[in-house]
Amino acid sequence: MCMMQIQLRVETYGAPPTATLDDKVEASLKSALAPRYDAAGPALNLQNFSNSPQIVRDYYLPLFRPSVATKIFNVLCEVLPTLAILDLSNNRLTTLESFQKLAQLTPNLKALNLSDNKVEEPPKLSSLVSVSMMVDGNQFPDVLLV
Predict the structure, then answer these.
(1) Is the confidence at residue 39, as pLDDT, over 90?
(2) Residue 43 belongs to a domain with what CATH number?
(3) What is the per-residue burial (b if ≥16 Cβ within 10 Å, else e) of 56-93?
(4) For burial by CB atoms within 10 Å, which of 34, 45, 88, 107 has the most?
(5) What total number of domains does the chain contain?
């Protein structure tokens, strides 16, 4: 039996790769967003967005990056005002800073799912007081959200 030894050198980098949000990326975003929008709701399911089959092969576009969230909202600017349901669950969000303008962009929003993220503080989206929020599976203590 012949045995061969192979040396493997692994280099790690501090952050995942970034993508320039150009026209090509925008086209991929649109193709990933189209099947996630339900006009009947109207609802937008962005659950686990970075693993969308339309983008996962070529890009790493997590919603926890402010530039990605902003780009998605810009792409969806026409449908956001009518949106009633928004699912942002399972996106490894640690903060909701990128979503501070959400109330202005989605005046008809009735339900917001923030479940199974890594948000450390309860949402301070005071202008969304009439919105039903699902927040289980985050890292802040269970509190009454008013």
Answers:
(1) yes
(2) 3.80.10.10
(3) eeebebbbbbeebbebbbebbeeebeebebbbbbbbeb
(4) 88
(5) 1
SS3 letters across 83-104 = CCEEECCCCCCCCCHHHCCHHH
pLDDT tens column, 42-80:
999 999 999 999 888 888 899 999 889 999 999 999 999
Identity (one letter) of the amino acid at 73?
F
CA distance 74 to 26: 10
- Residue at 141 is within a domain: no
Cis peptide before 141 (omega within 30 of 0): no
Residue pair 104/84 in contact by the 8 Å Cβ criterion: no
* Mean of per-residue pLDDT scores for the chain: 85
Tell me the CA distances in angstroms from 13 to 10, 16, 101, one per residue in order.
10, 7, 33
- Note down the domain range covering 97: 23-134
Strand 132-134 and strand 111-113: the pairing is parallel
Amino acid at 56: V
Domain presence at residue 98: yes
